[in-house]
Amino acid sequence: MIIIHVDMDAFFAAVEIRDDPGLRGKPLIIGSLPNERGVVATCSYEARKYGVHSAMNIKDAYRLCPNGIYMHPHMDKYKAVSDALHVIWSDYAAALESVAYDEAYLDVTARAKDFDGAREIAREIKRRTREELGLSCSVGVAYSKTAAKTASEEKKPNGYFEILTPEAFTALMSGRDVRELYTVGKKTAEKLHRSGIRTVRDITLRSGEVVSLLGKQGQWLVSLASGIDDRPVTPYRPEDAKSIGREVTFQKDVDNYALLSDVLLLLALSVDRRAKRVGLHGKGVSLKITYADMKSISRSQLVFSTDSPLEIYRTAARLLGSVEHRPARLVGVSIYNLSAEPEPQISIDELIEEKTHRSENELSALLDSLGARYGLDFAGNLDKIYKADTLHKTIEYMRRHS
Q1: Whole-angstrom Cα Rg for the chain
Q2: Which single residue of 109, 112, 218, 332 could bond 214 by disulfide (Cβ 3.0 to 4.6 Å)?
Q3: Does CATH number 3.40.50.1970 belong to domain 1-163?
Q4: Catalytic annotation on 103?
Q5: Architecture of the domain made up of 170-225
Q6: How many Cα atoms are found within 13 Å in the side-chain-facing hemisphere of 137?
Q7: What is the DSSP string of 298-322?
Q8: Other beta carbons within 10 Å of 236
Q9: Looking at residue 259, what is its pLDDT?
Q10: Percentage of residues in the chain having pLDDT higher than 70
């Protein structure tokens, strides 16, 4: 196999800087604002010099970088750029596995034929990304997915690196901390460190201990530490998803459960829209709540079908009534047991038509009632509200006016 891993450099921040050159050279933090709850989505390399990083609590980021420029993400814009990136990547890959908006594995074995060909493809990807989109990316060329991912991280930003054999991988990684090995997170690293297993070389030398400590994950890490990874590049299929959901974090805790029920309707509509966009149906609905003390709970219920946003909402509302009513900071709705199979057809078409008509009328009435409570036109603005940015702003407006 010949695998290329492409990783955009500080993607959200880079798009904003491209569109506003006045931001260039400044510590830009994309995510929540300092006076809000939330985390850093990404940040410019100037901000990273202060210790700011993705997933950091926004309060901690502000403490480290009080003079930074803080900005909400513009997800629709990033999605459009991501779509353009995928067009470029698809020109070279027999199979393309997206990891996120800004990152993907490309199987270029057939197109490249050898590593010389892969180097040329990597140069082409970097050139087209710069010329067509005004952005930079880091590219790794390797014999496996793990090695390609490692290579793309090696020379960021705007880097290129290659790891062509398992021997080259182990030579590069053996002396490094276990945390630098793909899939080793903070908790796993702490377990290994407590056992005196600190480097990637230690994993191979003490493989039995690693397997005893971590089980199947340990076996996987021993293989990776030895440079062994034969996973194919697997294109993402919507039907492979385990669930489809939407959640919102409130800027202040909410103890008004009538408001939470209203929010569930908008979340149910958003989840239904996302599911229909990829042609999926669910057989279960889940409710998630994170309370003010950060304790999270979830409740689930199987249903006949989630083809109707009204059914998602009704089920989520019933689940809401079953939980302890105390101040909440987050609420979410999701559907699960996904399938691309349509709901079984009932032979009496008139009954189906009548049921659909009743559901549409009831949903319209609920939206009208919701709009009257908050002074908003929900029914006339659903296409806008489906967008994540607008959805969160709308829900915050509802919270402030409840």
Answers
A1: 24
A2: 218
A3: no
A4: yes
A5: Orthogonal Bundle (1.10)
A6: 29
A7: EEEEE-S---SHHHHHHHHHHHHHT
A8: 12
A9: 96
A10: 95
Q: Whose CA is closest to 9, among 36, 33, 41, 44?
A: 44
Using an 8 Å Cβ cutoff, are 141 and 126 in contact?
A: no
* Gap between the Cα atoms of 1 and 147, Å rounded: 12
Looking at domain 238-400, its CATH class is: alpha beta
Answer for the pair 317, 268: CB distance below 8 angstroms, yes or no: no
- Helix boundaries (H) for 145-197: 145-154, 166-173, 186-194
Long-range contacts of 198-205 (CB under 8 A, 24+ apart): 199/174, 199/175, 200/170, 200/173, 200/174, 200/175, 200/176, 200/225, 201/174, 201/175, 201/225, 202/178, 203/178, 204/170, 204/174
**Residue 390: helix, strand or coil by DSSP?**
helix
* Cβ within 8 Å of residue 63, ≥6 positions away: none
For residue 83, what are the contacts with CB-CB under 8 A and spacing of at least 6? Answer: none
Amino acid of residue 70: Y
**What six digits make up the tokens of 35?**
């006076």
207-258 per-position pLDDT tens digit? 999 999 999 999 999 999 999 999 999 997 766 778 999 999 999 999 999 9
From 16, 46, 97, 103, active-site residue: 103
